[in-house]
Amino acid sequence: MLRALALTAALLVPLTTAGWAKTSFIPAGEGAQERLLEALILAEEGDTIRLAPGTYNFTDGLSLDVDGVTLRGAGPDRTILSFTEQTGSGEGLLVTSSRVVLENFAVEDTKGDGIKSKGSEEITFRNLRVEWTAGPREENGAYGIYPVSSRNVLIENSAAIGASDAGIYVGQSQDIIVRNNRATHNVAGIEIENSYRAEVYGNTVTHNTGGILVFDLPNLPVQGGHDVRVFDNDIVNNDTPNFAPEGNIVAIVPKGIGVMVMANRNVHVFGNRFDGNGTAHILIAAYPEDYEDDNYTFVPRGVYVHGNEYGRGGFEPDGEVGKIITDVTGDDVPDIVWDGVTQISEYFSWVSAEDGIYIEEADGTTFANLKMISQLLLPWSTSPDRDIADYAGSLPELAPVKLPQDDDKAS
Fold first, then answer.
1. Is this prediction's pTM over 0.85?
2. CB–CB of 13/21 below 8 Å?
3. Which of 105, 141, 161, 376 has an alpha carbon within 20 to 30 A of 75's alpha carbon?
4. Are strands 15-16 and 19-20 parallel, antiparallel or unpaired?
5. What pLDDT does 10 receive?
6. Is 111:83 a contact under the CB 8 Å cutoff?
7. DSSP code string of 50-83
8. If you write DSSP's letter for every residue of 108-132 in order, what string do you get?
9. Statement: residue 338 has pLDDT above 70
10. What is the pLDDT of residues 12-28, one digit of tens each?
């Protein structure tokens, strides 16, 4: 008997500072909403909450504010958190704690954002699916997987479908890996905004309005986004008409953009595979709107594009941006388009070596500098600079991002 007790004790989860770690099992069916809400409220550090196969129906959003908790389902096609009957307009799941793992479940049809973390230190989104099942609609929630103001963010092996802003959005955060995901039928497939040190790789981004956006915007608490690597992604057939609500910044994105870099610094785009993007495979641009923010720099700086593969693109330029491009290039839209804006002030335009635009691509890759002089409004020449050789050069490679929760050390 004593030996059996000792063996049982050895198999117990180790003691944490909050008490004995435990696993709670929440079955689907009647009363599941109340049981899960209670489990999230009463959870302690180190606990795991397990969800069974089945559909869980919610009329209200969920929240977690306890550190060190894992919420785990049986798989994104087996454990489904449905918010079709949600009465409020908030997110499906809001996490405001740290060292949290969310994995192996789906969130469907939230009125607001799908899964959001705010102020989290070390947050993992793994093998999730966030989807609006009626397809692309303005009424869909803005963001699918949505960490903001967070650090050490890992998003992997997940799917985001139908968001009216961005399927996977990381904003005002630092130390980020977004890998091996699928983003489809969103306005923006993946967006990195006002963030530091991010890697986006191994993803399939298709049938969105725009594939991958790397933006820096004014009037936000965190500014000066920098050091972003976008590599080894399949960015193909982004052909969904823009369905963002009016006034949203992504409403400016034309249908058929592969990668768009706007007003961000030290962005490396390499080793990706582009095909079927009707406006342009890569667009490098200044922020096009008026703003009042003395700390904001509206032009992209230090963009290095190299080693990508380009299929058919630029065959159906869309919207106002498409018209701006074709007004200068004609119908022969190149693979890579830079608006050419380098203006720092009303009177002075200057580019240092570390802030230049550098392109090292295979023979046959096409390029145009549209030679815009301010806010994407006026070209100083109607003849774009198409000589890609004039932009040869490189920038120092960025160090890979390392996360404390990351088991995959190879990048």
1. yes
2. yes
3. 141
4. antiparallel
5. 29
6. yes
7. EE-SEEEE-SS-EEE--TT-EEE-S-TTTEEEE-
8. E--SS-SEEEES-EEEEEEEEEEE-
9. yes
10. 333 344 457 899 999 99
| DSSP result, 314-353 | -SS--HHHHHHHHHHHTT---SEEE----BSSSS-B---G
Separation of CA 173 from chain center: 11
Q: CB under 8 Å to 271, separation ≥6 — which residues?
A: 231, 232, 307, 308
Contacts of 287 (CB under 8 A, 6+ apart): 216, 217, 218, 262, 263, 296, 298, 299, 375
The pLDDT of residue 295 is 87
Indicate the pLDDT class of residue 2, thresholds 50, 70 and 90.
very low
Q: Specify the pLDDT at position 342.
A: 83
pLDDT at 235: 98
What's the mean pLDDT in 56-76? 97
Q: State how far the alpha carbon of 371 is from the alpha carbons of 73, 268, 336, in Å.
A: 52, 22, 14
Distance CA 183, CA 160 (A): 5
What H or E segment, with its residue span, contains residue 38?
Answer: helix 32-42
Burial (0-12, 13-18, 19+ Cβ within 10 Å), 4? exposed
